[in-house]
Amino acid sequence: MSNIIRGYQLSQVVCVMAQLGIADLLTDQPRSSIDLAQATNTDANSLNRLLHTLASFDVVIEDESGMFSLTSLGSTLRSDVFNSLHDMAIAWCHPAMYGAWTNILESIRTGYPTFNNIFGIDFYSYLHNNTEFNGIFNRAMGSMDRHAELITIYDFSDAKCVLDVGGGKGVLMMYILRRYWHLIGILYDLPHVTEDARKLFAVGQSDISERLSIISGDLFVSVPTSADTVILSHMLMNFDDSKTKLLLSNCRAAMASGDKLLIIEVVLRDNTNQLDGRLNDLNMLVLLGGRYRSEQEYVTLLEQTGFTLKSNIQMKCNDNLLTCHAV
Fold first, then answer.
1. In the chain, what are the domains?
2. Half-sphere exposure (CA, 13 Å, Cβ side) for 205?
3. pLDDT tens, position by position, 202-232
4. pTM for this one?
5. Which 8-state DSSP code applies to residue 30?
6. Residue 252 and residue 263: Cα distance in Å, rounded?
7. C-alpha 187 chain-centroid distance
8. 181: closest CA among 205, 206, 153, 160?
9. Is residue 195 within 8 Å of residue 218, measured between CB atoms?
């Protein structure tokens, strides 16, 4: 219980390691705390204490000569590896994310996000107004391995046009279009998000730019038409049931009968042995007033908005792929 209570201290230690880029500095060879302090412009004694703390839970290891090396666990914080957790570590410990949890009691009592009261604006407005954190957050979300896994478990061969609603910078769309060269893609998100995507996929700068349309808009007003496959990846968890039904209804209005809707979300199981999912469920509450849902809760929402659930596949990344058909 003591380790659970002090868990926030462990996450802050890992965050500092990521912020200082220590994992990258230890990629090629072991280094001393003095050498690392010089490279990171930090106090050698204080950094040495941080490294010993990291060693106590197997993020780094110290040899007899006082040289520190990365463990396999610590290597996940390198910024140059596939599915890096570097940005994730920084994002989760950012005051915007961590700060909302300092008053979770208010959300438990009221059922409303505490983020708005602490910061004076909603979470996505905060992202829009804070460029640095917006970049960290988007990179952290883009690093999730659900993007790479989707194209290994779902066959897009019969699709002609795929629409990613709330697709951020287009990481998922990039995976799909590079795997299926016959596809046309549409990336749809808020204007300040698509601005970054337009730079990333500018004509002549990307091998998929000629097959990708980037559209800005408000998904609670309308969703672009013409796609036979629509993707909602980590979108519905952000909203309460009323907004989720509105978003699903807008998607259905843009689709023809028989078109596919792919939902990628963590689906809560009936038992409570699902710590990551349960913590993220609470995170949605304190940040956005959203929630994670069970399969039956999704079935109910889908039936109310003109869809039927055809399959629910458990992904290796702990998400679920819900394949739905427009009726």
1. 2-78 (1.10.10.10), 145-267+290-326 (3.40.50.150)
2. 8
3. 766 678 888 999 999 999 999 999 999 999 9
4. 0.82
5. -
6. 13
7. 17
8. 160
9. no
